[in-house]
Amino acid sequence: MNTNNHAGIGMTSQRTRDRLISRLEEKGIKNDRVLEAMRMTPRHLFVDEALASRAYEDTALPIGHKQTISQPYVVARMTEAILKDGIPEKVLEIGTGSGYQAAILAAIVKEVYTVERIEPLYQQARRRAMQMGLRNIRFKLSDGSWGWESYAPYDAIVVTAAPKEIPQALIDQLDVNGRLVIPVGKTSEVQDLLLLHKTPDGIQQERLDLVSFVPLIQGGV
Ligand code: SAH
């Protein structure tokens, strides 16, 4: 029998997935909604079949086009960060990639909007979501540094590629009381994971972690 089987046996079994959840708890993830969404979402279906056996390791994996599916811990950390005082209704994600982070969000919030600039990744993520019956995600092929104006404002925004500076459009499209989580850095090796909170009196900012994301590429698609 093939232990890499996409049907969810062997290395992709529920037990293997549960081990990842225990790891996330050990690393400090506490939010039950996040842990449950990650326990239920089959990450092996978001990577190439050849990598399926590694899908429940806590590591980023290549998804082609020089891009990666984020490390599960980082997905959990970012998702937890936007759930600080309750469940947001409308969330914008920049950098669809495999569609995994969008699927985690879709398991928790009412509406997910996600923007990707590489067409084959956008197409594949859309197809996956359809096959999985995830109907509350809308996909857009565009440069996400402009956000997605037509559905703004958003209760939360999750950016999964790293710009050198926070794009102003994203701050503008965040609702009052909304949260924006974004890796920001001058180098491609390491960035600060920032959490912004838009209050009626202005923007509050805290640093959550050091992370390593692929760059947010601005301009043109
Ligand atoms: N959230 C993804 C991880 C994505 S990796 C997942 O769960 O799999 C970062 C993604 O951001 C890549 O797919 C990359 O193509 C995309 N990206 C980079 N610059 C972008 C931009 N300006 N607008 C939209 N997407 C962008």
Number of strands: 9
CATH architecture of the domain at 60-211: 3-Layer(aba) Sandwich
Report the sheet-strand fraction.
25-35%
Kindly report the spatial arrangement of strands forming the biggest sheet. 5-4-3-6-7-8-9
Q: Radius of gyration from the CA trace?
A: 16 Å
Distance between the termini: 43 Å
Q: Can you summarize the main beta sheet?
A: 7 strands, mixed
Please write out the topology:
Elements: H1 14-26, H2 32-40, E1 61-64, E2 67-69, H3 72-81, E3 90-94, H4 100-106, E4 111-116, H5 119-131, E5 137-141, E6 154-159, H6 168-172, E7 174-184, E8 191-199, E9 202-211
Parallel strand pairs: 3-4, 3-6, 4-5, 6-7
Antiparallel strand pairs: 1-2, 7-8, 8-9
Bound molecules: S-adenosyl-L-homocysteine.
Can you tell me about this structure?
The protein has a domain at 60-211: Rossmann fold, CATH 3.40.50. The chain is built from six helices and nine strands, in the order H-H-E-E-H-E-H-E-H-E-E-H-E-E-E. The protein has helices at 14-26, 32-40, 72-81, 100-106, 119-131, 168-172, and strands at residues 61-64, 67-69, 90-94, 111-116, 137-141, 154-159, 174-184, 191-199, 202-211. The strands form two sheets. A seven-stranded mixed beta sheet has the order 5-4-3-6-7-8-9. A two-stranded antiparallel ribbon has the order 1-2. The N and C termini lie far apart (43 Å). Mean pLDDT is 94; it is low at 1-8.
